[in-house]
Design a protein that fits this description.
Blueprint (H helix, E strand, L loop, with lengths): L26 H13 L3 H8 L6 H8 L3 H10 L5 H21 L2 H9 L17 H15 L5
């Protein structure tokens, strides 16, 4: 019987928010996301995401369904977010990456996020980020835009 050489393909990523490309998701990618969320996102990694968006600290607290005071404590104590908050952070990062892909730049995507949108019932896309259903709706809308479906 012939023996085959095997190599370990396990990779460690120091900054998990860097590994999601929305279009590159297979079951393994989803399981990695679940694992990252269960371990929790550190405030340091969260802070890198915050810098990409023009949202206030209070808006971020609202997206994560925690008080601004709690978010400040997380920052001060360099805490790790729980699973649900980590999932939301990952979803927002995925939305950001997808928006960059569709619009070709983060600047155009951020303008879209802050502008009233007829296809979304005259709602600003950023107002939907606090809900998992809202993020899913925004992902769908980005796909429609990518394919030229404007309404």
């Amino acid at each position: 019987m012939k023996k085959y050489k095997t190599t370990d393909t396990t990779h460690s990523v120091a900054e998990p928010v860097a590994l999601y490309g929305y279009q590159n998701f297979d079951d393994g990618g989803i399981f990695r996301m679940i694992e990252i969320a269960e371990k929790g996102i550190s405030f340091k990694l969260f802070d890198n995401l915050v810098k990409k968006f023009p949202f206030s600290f209070q808006e971020w607290a609202g997206f994560l369904h925690i008080s601004g005071k709690t978010l400040s404590r997380y920052q001060k104590e360099e805490k790790t977010f729980d699973t649900l908050q980590s999932e939301k952070i990952l979803q927002i990062e995925m939305l950001y990456k997808r928006g960059e892909e569709v619009f070709g730049s983060s600047e155009y995507f951020l303008i879209w996020l802050q502008a009233e949108n007829l296809a979304l019932g005259k709602t600003k896309p950023q107002d939907l980020i606090g809900s998992n259903f809202g993020i899913s709706l925004l992902m769908d809308e980005l796909t429609r835009l990518e394919h030229g479906i404007l309404a």
